[in-house]
Specification:
By secondary structure, this protein is mostly helical. It has a domain at 55-197: Tetracycline Repressor, domain 2 (Orthogonal Bundle), CATH 1.10.357. The chain has helices spanning 3-26, 33-40, 44-51, 54-77, 84-98, 108-115, 122-147, 157-177, 183-196, 201-204. The radius of gyration is 19 Å and the shape is elongated.
């Protein structure tokens, strides 16, 4: 990699980092190239030359968010055995991330869902795709747990995905809006009670 390419990539990373912070604080719909130029000290034309349109920037921000999320939640869980151990690892890491105050962008999708719940367009579509990808990963893990006999064979995978996701959204709400220090403990207890109703008798032995 030559020096010019390295500098360009570093500049792009600076822009995306600033955009992530801005989206977390004000909403991804409030991103603007002009404001990013002010915050990064890069000319507006310099920002535009690296990210292109506002829609491209928003997509890049969500792509980077997804990358960081996968790195912190899904990839570590792959070190666990397939099935229930992996599902427990995913939910544990996800709930920990949701409560981490140092991650200002921890609720980017949750906030975006409310921001664009009644607005059609490419950004809403992209937000939906991100949520769908996370749910698909959860569903895959649940199906593996069923195949391995960790969860009951009559488990409705879609229903369990919904219930887990609802717990996470509730955790984000109580942690970040209500600032309830007990929110994660409440969520973990609710999840333990929930998953116990799905465990197979063989796995309980």
């Amino acid at each position: 990699m030559d020096a010019l390419t390295a500098k360009s990539e570093a500049t792009f990373a600076t822009i995306i980092d600033a955009a992530l912070d801005m989206a977390a604080a004000e909403g991804i719909g409030k991103l603007s190239l002009g404001e990013l130029a002010k915050r990064t000290g890069i000319s507006k034309s310099g920002v535009f030359s690296r990210v292109g349109s506002l829609e491209t920037l928003q997509a890049a921000v969500l792509d980077e968010y997804d990358r960081r999320f996968a790195q912190q939640v899904f990839l570590p869980a792959l070190q666990q055995p397939k099935g229930l151990p992996r599902l427990l690892a995913i939910v544990g890491a996800w709930s920990q991330r949701a409560c981490d105050e140092s991650l200002r962008n921890a609720c980017l999708y949750s906030a975006g869902a409310f921001e664009f719940d009644d607005q059609d367009g490419p950004l809403r579509d992209r937000l939906q795709q991100g949520v769908a990808a996370w749910r698909a990963a959860l569903r895959k893990t649940i199906l593996q747990a069923m195949e391995l006999g960790h969860l009951r064979p009559d488990t409705d995978a879609g229903q369990l995905v919904y219930e887990i996701y609802s717990l996470i959204v509730g955790l984000i709400h109580d942690t970040r809006f209500l600032r309830d220090e007990q929110a994660r403990r409440h969520m973990q207890r609710a999840f333990s009670r929930l998953i116990s109703t799905y465990k197979s008798f063989n796995d309980m032995e």
